[in-house]
Every structure is written in structure tokens, then in C-alpha cells.
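seq as requested:
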Amino acid sequence: MGKLNRGNVTKLSIRLTEKASKEIERLAMILNLSKAGVILHSLSKILKEKPDMHELLNLEAKYDLAPKNFAITIKREVADRINDMNATLDMNKNIWVGLLVSDYFEKHSEQHIKDQVPQEELDRIEEELSKDDPVIKTDTTQVKIEINTELKKR
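C-alpha cells:
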């Protein structure tokens, strides 16, 4: 079966901080979403408040972005909005969007989890995460299947 028609979409590459990247990965596993889905959810909230150049310069001084880009697929309307904002800002698009997303996840990520997941489940996940370092797997589909199977057992 082919891909569903998602409409007119484009790619956006962003650079994230290491801490934000790990937080996004953790949230993706808890909420059973892709990392791109978690980023897009936050990006919609971030773009509602238009950032100014002064704020971005403060973030640029505060955060160290990883050299590797993370690519996500976004709707053309969102890309147009980002491009309009990019015209007023004198900074690379992948850097300023990455700074805003990284800042958002380093400051506000816990509120998203609390809004979406019951406290008992959060406590259990935090307890399991603190026991031992997670084994990093590259097959995210298999990881999600294992997590869902584990949650169904409980």
C-alpha cells in the first residue's frame, strides 16, 4: 500500500541541543509518537507567539546546537509561515527554529507529559528509566511494539 496523500508538504531541517533531542525522544516514547510528531506539536505552539530577534540572540548565546540536522515533513502553510518569519530574522532557518524548539523542550516539556499521561504512569516510567540505562535500538517500530506489549500486560 502506498503512502496516504498528506497534501502539499515540504521538508524542514532543524538543529537541536543534545538535551532537547533526548527529551524529545523520551516524550515520543511516552506519548507513542514519532520524534517529528512531538516537534511539530511544539512548533505549532511556538509559532503562535512570534519570536523576535532579541529573544533569538539570547537563545543563541544560551544553547549549543548539535551539528547534525533533524529533518521533518511539514505542511506548506507552516513552511510559508516560517519563511515569512525568516525574512524578518537575520539567521539561518534551521538554527533559529532549532533554538526555539530546543528552548521549548528544555523548559516546557514536563507540562506536555502531565497534560497527556496519568501521574501513576509517569511515576512508573520514571522509576523504570532510573533503574538502568536504556538500550538504544534503531528500529523504532519494534521499540513501539515492545512498549505497547509491555503496557498491555499491566
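The longest strand covers residues 9-15.
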